[in-house]
User: Fold this.
Amino acid sequence: MPTLLLLGAGSDMAIAIARKFAAEKYNIQLAARNAAAISPLQQDLQVRYGITATTHAFDALASDSHAAFFDALSVKPDLTICVFGYLGDQEQAQNSWQEAHTIIHTNYTGAVSILNVVANHYAAQQKGSIVGISSVAGERGRQSNYIYGSAKAGFTAYLSGLRNRLFRSGVHVMSVQPGFVNTRMTQHLTLPPLLTAQPEAVATAVYKGVQRKKNVLYVKWHWKYIMLIIKLIPEGIFKKLKL
Amino acid sequence: MQKRLANWGNYPAIASEESAFTQEDQLRNFVGSHHRIIARGNGRCYGDASLSAQSISMLKYDKVLAFDTTNGILEVQAGVTLDQLLDIIVPQGWFLPVTPGTKYITIGGAVASDVHGKNHHVDGAFSRHIIEMDVITGEDNTLCCSQTEHADLFWATCGGMGLTGIITRVKFRLKKIATAYIRQTQLKARNLEEVIRLFDEYKHYTYSMAWIDCLQQGDTFGRSILIVGEHATPEELSPRQQQAPLTLPAKRKLVVPFNLPSFVLNTFTVKAFNWLYYHKNYKREMHKVIPYEPFFYPLDAILHWNRGYGKAGFVQYQFVLPLEKKDGLVAILQKISEKGWGSFLAVLKVFGNQDDLISFPMEGYTLALDFPVRKGLLPFLDELDEIVLQYGGRLYLSKDARMKQEVFWKSYPNAQRFADIVQQYNADSKFASIQSERLLLTK
Ligand SMILES: Cc1cc2nc3c(=O)[nH]c(=O)nc-3n(C[C@H](O)[C@H](O)[C@H](O)COP(=O)(O)OP(=O)(O)OC[C@H]3O[C@@H](n4cnc5c(N)ncnc54)[C@H](O)[C@@H]3O)c2cc1C
Assistant:
């Protein structure tokens, strides 16, 4: 049975991904800051799908601990999915470095730090898959969330570089660009239904993407075109828009 | 985010801010810092019991925590739905001890309504099978309660419509089954007298209920079909079914995609439906072995059938009358038949003993009817309430959307005791629904 390491297992999207892969008979390693809080999910996966699930304490912001965290895994995962992220508050991030710092380090630095460790391991063994959940917010900075967006932009660029580097080692790297997803992170927002994916749909798309070794995955196909248009708007016009 | 919320009857609808949680500490924090909130399961109660300006959707709180497959004990978070559980337990030879007529409800909803099934006269309501459960009360601590521990909280939570707090975890006993099939017998009854006689004759069956055609007059007044069943043994299955006795053949679902215009459901269509339904049973007595799904959940095969009633929605009227008061049943059916407001679904059942403090079932007959919302409906239902009161019966809170407060206080003998316990655990009305405000159960 293959093993999946899920980094950031507390979110709605992570729960859906864990269930999808467990249903496809993966053993699951759930990593989250508060390991006790995800033990109900661990139990759920074992009862529902008859697989082995384990919990592991992992803090994206504690980069110093990342190598030791990976070393301590008694079974090394065949597939690693990096789901954690932090939307934060744009206005607060403009005014206080504390919030900006958390956004940047959770979405970018922390992800790079742990995935470097995983990537080196996969490169050495010449196999493995890495999936990074980035965001369409990273494709063009907008006044409403550019701190988050810029960190995700960095993450997207990191993943594409990693894909380039690991291609020859036979390691698969996939970047996922979900648009709006109906999760706790977005439950206070009014989202357009046509453009909003359910976490289960993201999970299924990720599973299929892994099977087919896709490079870049847009969860709702419209997004690819929406972002294309958004990227094509000339800067002179774009800067005047209230986005 | 504000959204329009309504339960299964689509009446009433209100604007509500809905929040959802996957983790206990987040849920507790939310409860600690908010007021006048109500837990919401899958919105399958018909009326206003899980509606409030602030609601907590429990659907993401859906982890299955433990399944003791030797003793048939299941421990789950309250937001998991019965259909998810059936998929896990049936293939391992276990079944829900009690199930309502739809599997799209949550365990929290099953406890808060203390739901009954077709086996109430044998197995009681859902509460009878609970070993223990956790409730986040108004003092924002989580209390584990059972028939022996915090018993007052336990009994006020079973059937308590979410007013004692948020149920987070439930541990309950399952029923052993050898197959996923039911051996069913259908019996045609010419009128109400006959179906009541048949209920008595077949009361040793674990499962029973009857469909009534409530638009008949004279000789055929109350003609109906009684359906009784038992879990089938492996020997009773066909050779093909025997190959995998605990798994069902896969089936696709029909969906009613939008609200039908209201003229679709008028007396004529109801008559036609009932005629067809009655005559489909061409023999007086029919036996067959069928999968558990169409037996327990015939309506679930058509998802969103509630939309058939149109935008205005409908009200389900479910009452129970004491066993010796069948003339009350006649009086109510007469009134409906005179009015010509029959319903597609009229389900008759016999209940066993009363379960506890505030749950609905008591020994007697219960009838459930659907009425599309239209002019004059509410006064008409008030008239029916009078008859129910006169015969010592009461209405099911989980179906209610309109009962007047005095009807509740007169018909539930333990209303005051229940209100006192709610007051004890929910003193500041942290948990409140528009139903609880209407019935004066919260201030
Ligand atoms: C087609 C159909 C057939 C039905 N047949 C039957 C039947 O045969 N027998 C029967 O008894 N009922 C029947 N019902 C009614 C249904 O079983 C109940 O209304 C049930 O409570 C709905 O559960 P829900 O999860 O949808 O909860 P909701 O409808 O959302 O809520 C119902 C009540 O439970 C409370 N609640 C929900 N979750 C929690 C929680 N975690 N903590 C505290 N309170 C909570 C709510 O506050 C509310 O008071 C039927 C309903 C339908 C639509």
About this structure: The two ends of chain A are 46 Å apart (CA to CA).
